[in-house]
Amino acid sequence: xxxxxxxxxxxxxxxxxxxxxxxxxxxxxxxxxxxxxxxxxxxxxxxxxxxxxxxxxxxxxxxxxxxxxxxxxxxxxxxxxxxxxxxxxxxxxxxxxxxxxxxxxxxxxxxxxxxxxxxxxxxxxxxxxxxxxxxxxxxxxxxxxxxxxxxxxxxxxxxxxxxxxxxxxxxxxxxxxxxxxxxxxxxxxxxxxxxxxxxxxxxxxxxxxxxxxxxxxx
Amino acid sequence: xxxxxxxxxxxxxxxxxxxxxxxxxxxxxxxxxxxxxxxxxxxxxxxxxxxxxxxxxxxxxxxxxxxxxxxxxxxxxxxxxxxxxxxxxxxxxxxxxxxxxxxxxxxxxxxxxxxxxxxxxxxxxxxxxxxxxxxxxxxxxxxxxxxxxxxxxxxxxxxxxxxxxxxxxxxxxxxxxxxxxxxxxxxxxxxxxxxxxxxxxxxxxxxxxxxxxxxxxxxxxxxxxxxxxxxxxxxxxxxxxxxxxxxx
Lengths: 218, 248
What we know:
The structure holds two protein chains of two kinds. Chain A is built from eight helices and no strands. Chain A is mainly alpha-helical. The radius of gyration of chain A is 21 Å and the shape is elongated. In chain B, 38% of the residues lie in helices and 26% in strands. The relative contact order of chain B is 0.17. Classes of the chains: A mainly alpha, B alpha/beta. The A-B interface holds A 106, 108-109, 111-119, 122, 126-127, 130-131, 208-214, 217 and B 56, 58, 79-83, 86-87, 89, 91, 93-98, 106-107, 110-112, 139-144, 152, 155, 159.
C-alpha cells in the first residue's frame, strides 16, 4: 500500500478526530470559564459539589470516564460519548486554571469596583477577565495539547477516529511503523497548531494587564 | 461647623470578628456631618478601616443600623449609596488593565451610566486637578505610588460623591510621596467636601480636620477639635497615643 493510499484509508478517522478536538476545546473553554467563576465565588453548598467534581475528574484517568459513560449511560452515539467524556474530564482542569488565575488578582480590585457601585459581573467582564487572558493562555495551551492527546483513547468507546483507522491499517499492512508514524505526524501538526494559536492570542493580549514592572520604564 | 446636617449616622452598631473575640464596634453611636473633614485615628487593629468599610457595606455590621441621609443602608439600596459615597484605599486598588483615564471613567460609565464622552470630559478635569493631566494614558504600573493614589482620588472625585472615605491613603507610600497626596486631600478639605479619613498623618489631622476621633474598644473614646485633641486631650489613652506619635 502506497503512502497516498494509507493516508486515504485513514482520512475518515482523521476527519472525526479533527471534528472532536475543536468541539471539546470550545465546550471545555465555556464550561471551564463558568466553573472557574463559580469556584472562585465559593458559593456555600455548590462549592462542595464543584470540589467533589473537580477532585473526581482529576483523580481518575480519562479512559475510565469514557468507559463509565459507555457502560452506564446509554448515549445516542459513540462520538457523543467521547465528546461528553473528554469535555467533562478536561473542563475540571480548565475550571481550575481559570479559578487559579482569578485568585491571583488582588481582591482589592473587586472591592474598588464594588465601592463605585459597579455590579459583580461587570467587574468580572471589564476588570478580571481581560487580566486573566494573558497568564491563562499558556496554561490552556498545555491543557489542550493534553486534550488532543487524550483523543487517542476514544476508540475504546467505538469512535472510529484516526487511532482506530491506524490500527486497522496496521492489521492490513502488517506495517506498524508507517501507521504509528502517520498518527504521530497528524497529532504533531494538531498540537503545533494549538501552540501557534495560543502564541497569537498571547501576543494579541500583550497590552492587557500589568506586563512590566515600574523599574523597566526607567 | 457652619452646617450640621447629618450625612452618616451609626445607631447602636456592633461588629465583631472571630466569633465575638475581637470587638470592632461596640454599640457604636455617632454622626458624621456634611461638609466636615473627620479624621479617625487609633492604634493598629483598633478597627478604624473596618468602621469606614461598614458605611459602604464592604464590611457588614452584626447588629444596629447605619443611616445615610436618614435612610438605612441595606443590601437593597447599597448600589445607590455607593454611587454617592466614594472610597480611596490604602493600596490604591487601581485596575491594572486600564489607563489612568479609563480607571477614572470606569465608575461613571458602568455605575452612573454616563456616556463615555461625558465621563471622559470630567475625568480629564479631575486628573488635571490632581496634577496628572499629562499621564492620562499611562497604566498604573507606569505610575509611582503617589501618582497612583492621585489617580484613585480622581476616580473617587469623578463619581461626584457626597462623601469620600479615605482608608489610610498614605500608608503604602514612600515618605517623599506622602506630601503630594496630602496636598490634594487638604485642598479637598478646604473645598468643604465631606470626608472621613483614617490616617496616621497627624500633620494633616491638625491642619485640615474639623474633628478628630480616637477609636478604642469599639467606640470613639474622644472626639474633639484638632486643637483640643492635640493640646488638651481628655482621655488618658489619647494623651498617651499623642505622646507616642510625637516621640517619632
